[in-house]
Amino acid sequence: MDLDQLKQILDLVRDYGLSEFEIDHEGLRLKVRKDVAGVAPAASAAGSAPAIVAPLPTGSASAGSLAAAVQGTAEPTKPGDAEIELEVVKSPIVGTFYRSPEPGAPSFVDVGSTVKKGQVLCIIEAMKLMNEIDSEYDGEIVNIYVENGQPVQYGERLFAIRMR
Predict the structure, then answer these.
(1) Predicted TM-score (pTM) of this structure
(2) Same domain assignment for residues 71 and 92
(3) pLDDT tens digit string along 128-163?
(4) Which of 83, 105, 128 is the last residue of a domain?
C-alpha cells in the first residue's frame, strides 16, 4: 500500500464522515478511527499482521496531514506487543451507559483498574431498568469507549480489557 492509496482511503473516511474504517490488504491491516469523544483508541494485532491505528483530527484537515498521522503510527510493533491479548466487552442491550451506580458516586472501574470475572463494570439503563454489566474476564481495563450518560447500541464496544 503506497502513500497515494492511504490518502485516498483517508479522503473517503473524511468525506463520508466515518468514525471508523478497517481494511486488510496484502498482509497489512489498516484501521483508522476518528477520535470524536477525546477517548484514545486501542489497537490489537490480529494474526501476524501488525495493526495500524490512527486517530483522525476532527474538523477539516488536508489529506496530507491525515496521511502524516498514519505515517507516524506505521512503526513496527515491539515483539512483546503481539503477546498482549485484549478482550472487548460489548453492550448486550440498547440503552444509556452509566459508569457509576448513582450520580456523584465513584465509577465502577476506570482505565488501569484491575477487574475480576463477574465484577460490575457499568450499568445500562433500558426501559427504566438498571442492568449491571459484569466482566467476563480477569484483567486490566485499558480503554473505556463510551462516555457516561451516552446512549449505546446492541453490540457497541464498552471496554477493552488486557487479559491476565
Answers:
(1) 0.50
(2) no
(3) 899 999 999 999 999 999 999 999 999 999 999 998
(4) 83
